[in-house]
Amino acid sequence: MAPVLTVSGLGKTFIMHLRGGIELPVIADAAFVLEGGKCAVLGGPSGAGKSSILKMLYGNYAVNEGGIEILHRGQIVDLASAAPRTVLEIRRETIGYVSQFLRVVPRVSALDIVAEPMVERGTDRRKAADRAGELLSRLNLPERLWALPPATFSGGEQQRVNIARGFIIGHPVLLLDEPTASLDATNRAVVVDMIAEKKQAGVALLGIFHDTDVRNAVADVIIDVTGFAPDKKAA
Ligand SMILES: Nc1ncnc2c1ncn2[C@@H]1O[C@H](COP(=O)(O)OP(=O)(O)OP(=O)(O)O)[C@@H](O)[C@H]1O
């Protein structure tokens, strides 16, 4: 099967403008592919650059070198050089992202935060709210919390709202940054099942999972980020 996303020659160097422009090379010449129906997992020690790769794939971090080719609206688009408007369109339709922490918006209820991506894509508000409720029930978020803004929720409750929001749309590519880090065993198992269903539906997933049990349960491929270390490439 043709890959859904192809990373080639990807490089990232942070420039610390407030520290006299010190350069911090983090990733060099990274290359891998994502395929539909498979979950790839980024491996490697803390600080190796796993989150930085996810953030480049979602367009949060600028790419210094290389390309990120993605199948979007039936065409191959290079995310690394795409215009901001195209990146936003790709996020709406093609790439979903569950970040480590929920970005809470004041006064917006948990249910609306989860439903929002569906509403943005034109689904009727009530239908989107029903689907959001189904996901929140499945993730065991008590119904009494649904109408409240998540600012005061526990870490695990906020993480479950974030997961429901990331999973509500059928994006063909889904990026997961430690989605189970704050969850108990019951909810970790729910997320493992939800990932398996995404695979069944043909979604290409890329995630970071520090929990070994979760990683073993979901991973089809491990991408070892230490192979993309800049000093290794220079040696
Ligand atoms: N915005 C940034 N500005 C400067 N340096 C950064 C930035 N983001 C990440 N880094 C640096 O890049 C390196 C890789 O960080 P990253 O968060 O990608 O690693 P990681 O493999 O995901 O680590 P962990 O497993 O601890 O989450 C680290 O040395 C970090 O300090």
Walk me through the topology.
Blueprint (H helix, E strand, L loop, with lengths): L4 E12 L5 E13 L4 E5 L6 H8 L7 E8 L2 E4 L5 H10 L1 E4 L11 H11 L4 H14 L16 H13 L5 E5 L7 H16 L3 E5 L3 H7 L2 E4 L5 H5 L1
Parallel strand pairs: 3-8, 3-9, 6-7, 7-8
Antiparallel strand pairs: 1-2, 1-4, 4-5
Helix pairs in contact: 3-4, 3-5
The chain binds adenosine-5'-triphosphate.
The site of adenosine-5'-triphosphate has 10 residues, from strand 2 and helix 1.
Protein name: Phosphonate C-P lyase system protein PhnL
Family: Belongs to the ABC transporter superfamily.
Pfam families: ABC_tran
Could you explain the architecture of this structure?
The structure is a single chain. This protein folds into 2 domains: 1-94 and 174-235, Rossmann fold; 100-170, no CATH class. 36% of the residues lie in helices and 26% in strands. It is built from 8 helices and 9 strands. Helix 3 packs parallel to helix 5 (155-167). The radius of gyration is 18 Å and the shape is globular. Adenosine-5'-triphosphate binds next to strand 2 and helix 1. Belongs to the ABC transporter superfamily. GO terms for molecular function: ATP binding; ATP hydrolysis activity; lyase activity.
